[in-house]
Amino acid sequence: MSVEALFEWLFREWKRLPPWLRNLTYLSVLVVALYLLLSPGYLDGSLRTIAPDGSESTFLERGQIELDTQGRRIIVGLDENGDWHVPLASRLPFKSQPIGVRFQGRLYPVQIPYLAIVCGERVVVTYTEVGRPPFAIQDIADRNCGLLGAVVGFTRGAKAAELTAAPTPLQSSVDDLLASLPGSRPLSDVEQHKLAGAIERELHVEVTRSAWQIASERNDFRSLILNSARPTLPRTFGVTIQNIMKAYLPERDLYVGPDIPASKLRSALGARSDETPPERSVIALLDGTVFGSASVHLLFTAQGVYFRTSALRSSGPREGFVDFQAFPRLKFDKVAWQEVGIGNGSFDTSGSSISSGKLIQILNDIKTAVLTQPNSSGGTS
What we know:
single chain, five-stranded antiparallel β-sheet
């Protein structure tokens, strides 16, 4: 039977149906089409880090989820739990529904099954530094979607492909960069320029100018490479943080221990609902409020910085923690008016005496200190 004959037969049988059944079918198709067109949808999921021992934890980098449909690109930052909540314009089937993780300047796309979008499935993506492609679909959690949910479960293996365009494995990149060093001979300006490009390309780290100057003076580019991949901070790093912060005094809203007002510190700690550092571990406090309550603040410890920003922030979580070991892979820039990007969030400086430019300088000074710590380890394992 030809295609034309098949359509003629279907049309003839359709005309034989009772009018009420045809009208009901028309109405059902119209309702479904309107639902898919007008009902806003969301694509929910989370991004987790898998450690070498197999344990999972929250992905704390400044990651973003990007959705590209019908020529529109939506970029959504991860919250403090590594979760995303991406709005969809409609639930209509598009030619493709790619979603990806934008990380360290690169986009790793994945094809999400269309039925997962219709059913509102939750997608779990995991990250590993070495070995397989760093981002991969781990699971698509079934919800109460009846038969459609079963179909999604049946098709997930075929359509939920791994994220592609993986960078060179971290350990291999570090070994190659270390092998390119000319031993004890100082690097020429041309060699330094090539090494800077290689570190940015292979390790996705933009080394600060002051870090290059220090590495050049010490002729210690080995530590620079190792710290770019995975820094090792000494127990005395708190003293380094204290000295960096003291260099910016006097500053009205910046307080460095032991001269942090106890009442202001208690107010800042009391305003937090997420991770809270021990009071004695706080080395410096930056008050981001107009009236001095410190409910908006940065708390610097020897391990990292705790932030709590304004409720009127442009995006990202209101509070969180960024480990100093993640600083080499971060780029500190203004993300909105008087807002500076920090980790997976931002900090609003509009209520503080410190400008966004000065805060970026402070964060880059800490990044320089992390990059230039003596590092004698043999690799990243």
